[in-house]
Specification:
Layout (H helix, E strand, L loop, with lengths): L7 E2 L7 E2 L10 E5 L8 E10 L4 E6 L5 E4 L5 E3 L5 E6 L2 E9 L13
Antiparallel strand pairs: 1-3, 2-5, 3-4, 4-9, 5-8, 6-7, 6-9
Length: 113
């Protein structure tokens, strides 16, 4: 089992972010390849951080994947979205997520998503 010393950035521009130009190196945004042990299940890990003076609305055209989302006071496993995901961002915050491959969450769940 090969364990990397640090996270490996996924330097591929994201798809699905609406109304703004996002790149793999946009400030406050990052995606990382999973460890090889998780690669059969996980597409990537992602993080978004913000520190805003003026609230903004973020919209994403979601991919058909299960996401594990961790943030202060509001962590969840999010099922497969079929439309836009809309979130109002204000103040400062940070979210860490795990995007599972299609079918990749199935071994961790004994039932339908």
């Amino acid at each position: 089992m090969n364990k990397p010393d640090r996270l490996r950035p996924k330097l591929v521009d994201p798809r699905g972010v609406l109304h703004q130009r996002m790149t793999a190196t946009s400030p406050g945004y990052g995606r990382f390849w999973p460890d090889e042990d998780l690669a059969p299940f996980v597409e990537h890990l992602w993080t978004v951080a913000w520190d805003l003076e003026v609230p903004t609305v973020s919209e994403v055209l979601a991919h058909p994947s299960v996401q594990l989302v961790v943030e202060r006071d509001a962590s969840a496993v999010a099922g497969v979205f079929t439309g836009r995901f809309v979130r109002r961002l204000e103040g400062s915050g940070r979210v860490l997520g795990v995007k599972f491959l299609p079918g990749g969450f199935r071994p961790f769940l004994d039932g339908p998503v």
